[in-house]
Each structure stands twice: as C-alpha cells, then as structure tokens.
Amino acid sequence: MKMNLLCTPQGLVPLYDRDYDLKKKLKVGQTYVADVKVVRNLSFHNKFWALLNAAWSLLPERTSNGFRSLEGFRAYVIVAAGFYDVYFNPRLKEFVEVPKSISFEKMDEIEFSDLYDRSKDVIWGILGKYVSEEDFERCLINF
Questions:
Q1: Which of 38, 101, 104, 141 is 20 to 30 A removed from 110 (C-alpha atoms)?
Q2: Residue 38 gets which letter from DSSP?
Q3: What is the pTM of this model?
Q4: Are 89 and 95 in contact (CB under 8 A)?
C-alpha cells in the first residue's frame, strides 16, 4: 500500500482523499513498517512537459517530421540529454539506446532536475537556428 503523507507537527497526515481512504484501512494499535521517500515535485514534472510541448510547437515542419510525434521527440531529447539505457535488439542485431523512464518511481528530484537542465540545452541546440531565445522563453510562458 502506497500513500502520500504530509509531515506536520502532529504527525504524518494523508495528503489526498485516496490516501485518507487507505489510511482508514490501517488498524489502530497495529504496528506497520513504512518506506519513506520524498515525492518528486509534480509542478516541476509538468514544467518538463511544458518545455517539450513549447519546443514541439516551435519546430519547423521539416524538422518535426523527422521526429514524427511528440513522443518520438521526447524520447530523442531524453536520449540526447544522456538519460538512456543500452539494450541489444536481436531483430536489428545492434545495440539501441532506450530513454530512461521519467516516472516518479524511477527518477528522483535531483536526477529529474539534471534531466530538465540538460533537456533544455538539447532543445535550444535544435531550436536556436529557428527562433530567438526571447521567442522561446515567451512560448514557454504560454504552456
């Protein structure tokens, strides 16, 4: 059972209704073991997606066609930022780079922050030829 808890002076308190419902299932007086982890910032996660969406919207058609989709673009950016695992593909008979998962369980706040910074550099390397930095920053505000 996983639930989000907020640490208050009175103790740990369920953060959302779903978490409160889970806590109600715990028996008073029963001993439990918990694995406490700091939850990654959801707003920062959304900021990463805003960065990708803004960049995708600014890509010229000839460039965006090379990626085929926003998902393909996301995968490219993550790999180009250096966040990938290498696997052997027996069908292709070669090693392939697979982007690391950005799920909350797979990537902590520090690693995600590094991914964001490096992704911004990768994206600027692509977009810098087509748009000004001011236009890019202005577009980010709209997402």
A1: 141
A2: P
A3: 0.72
A4: yes
